[in-house]
Amino acid sequence: MIGEIAHFLSLSAVLLLSLVLIFNLAFFFTKIHPNQLILSMRLFNQACWLVFISFGIYVYLAISDDFSIAYIASHSNSQLPIFYKVTSIWSAHEGSMFLWIVFLTAWSILFINSLDKSHPLKKLTLLMLSVIILGFLLFLLLTSNPFERIMPFGALEGADINPVLQDPALAIHPPMLYLGYVGFVISFSFITAYLLNGDFELKWEQDIRNWSFVAWIFLTIGITLGSWWAYYELGWGGYWFWDPVENVALMPWLAATAFMHSLFAASKSNVLKTWTMFLGILIFALSLFGAFIVRSGIIDSVHSFANDPERGLYLLSFSGLITLLALTIFAYRLPALNSSKLVVTGSKESFLSMNNILMITSIFSIFLGVTYPLIIESISGEKVSIGPPYYNTIFAPLILIAAAFIMISVDALWQRSMPLKALLITIFAPTMLSLLSLYLIWQVTNIFSILAYIGIFSGSLILCSYLTRTINNFFNKKIY
Predict the structure, then answer these.
(1) pLDDT digit string (tens) for 269-283?
(2) CA–CA dist 109, 107 (Å, integer)
């Protein structure tokens, strides 16, 4: 009975979100009325709380060993500690998608309620968030129902959980990763609302900058924990094996990193706004693509959750629809977005622009590596594998060039070019310190690997550039 209550609450959330859409779309072209927004917000908030309560009940069902629920019976048992009973919820597809929706809902309710009642983008942002949450809730309930009962009688005992998943990292890695993934629904929805609104005099960057930064932190922690967990738990492949599922997690992070730099530039000097909007849309689109890859079973991976064409078709259709909607609006508004303010050569913005191009190149390279085998197999039936040599060959020079641009941009000026003397002074200390680090590592380990040394040197360039800048600021001096 308790399971049915949780199921009913999720269904009720679907109903309330549908009412938000119907109520607002029916009066979309009319002048907004204060009561309309108030009613929409109340319906939206209540729908979100119903999702939270439903998930809370589901956690209780897992802890209390309700093995009449098929998912709990398949992924938990009475001998597990309570800690692992809870984490077993997101150890497979249905439960992890439920957690994904809970985090999506949490980000949405926090952000939309943080906006002032009179904010011109609040109504459109609310609509976008409602569409996305509703789409994923329908996906969960129609194709991946976690509330399904074992009829006519439940199991006496549950199944044993995979020993690989009985690890404290399981409690942290997926939630951190999902918080990062879905956190960028804010930038996606807000930018789409801005483009729909059409008033390009609005200042929108500050509204989402902190939210996006927190999402980026979560995504970084999630990827780092996953890399560390895979290394010590699975053993093979090192910290990063260029597995397809690892790759689809990396693409949103690369886009998010470029987005954060562009967002800061857009709010600081009013340039790179078109770049910023495109990247804000791209991040969440790549997160949706990752969800499709992981949950459709279209690729074989140790990280994959499911193998169900029906689920894959729904995710592909829904993700493609909202991504196409956002990109179509972006393309329609693009002529009006072009700024007459040019990026000054040698300024901080120019180096950020170059890094954006490198990031997009990296994303495209990974996307090609993930999708090329699928395209070849669908055309000829031949199985093709793309492994680490392809990615290492492409990424080694890209990372080195990007590190050089980052090193220079640390001391570059906003909308002012850097003199040649200042440029030489800027790159001297980090370069020398990085070369010294490589020499010391070689002396200690007596191991030489070109790819490893390129990676170490690139990272050292960035760290040493910030270190020299910090020391310089501490002594209140400029290095040029």
Answers:
(1) 777 888 899 999 999
(2) 6
Contact by Cβ (8 Å): 157, 87:
no
Residue 232: C-alpha distances to residues 178, 181, 237 (Å) = 22, 24, 10
User: What are 440's two structure tokens?
Assistant: 């010391």
Q: In the predicted model, is pLDDT for residue 437 greater than 90? A: no
Q: In angstroms, rounded to a whole number, what is the distance separating the alpha carbons of residues 75 and 241? A: 27
Report which of 275, 304, 367, 297 is spatially closest to residue 92, judged by C-alpha positions. Answer: 304
What whole-number distance in Å separates Cα of residue 26 and Cα of residue 410? Answer: 50
Which tokens sit at 84?
Answer: 């692992």
**With contact defined as beta carbons under 8 Å apart, do 175 and 206 qualify?**
no
Q: Minimal CA–CA distance to 405: which of 345, 461, 468?
A: 461
* The residue count for the chain: 480
Tell me the C-alpha distance between 357 and 460, whole Å: 22
Phi, psi of 168 (to 5 degrees): -55, -30
Residues 278 and 195 sit within 8 Å (Cβ to Cβ) = no
Q: What distance in Å separates the CA atoms of residue 475 and residue 453, rounded to the nearest whole number? A: 32
> Full-prediction pTM beyond 0.85?
yes
Question: Which two tokens mark 477?
Answer: 């001096």
CA dihedral of 10, 15, 17, 19, whole degrees rounded to 10: -170
The three-class DSSP label of residue 204 is coil
Number of Cα atoms under 13 Å in the Cβ half of residue 257: 17
d(CA 354, CA 429): 22
**Across the strands, what pairs with 149?**
69
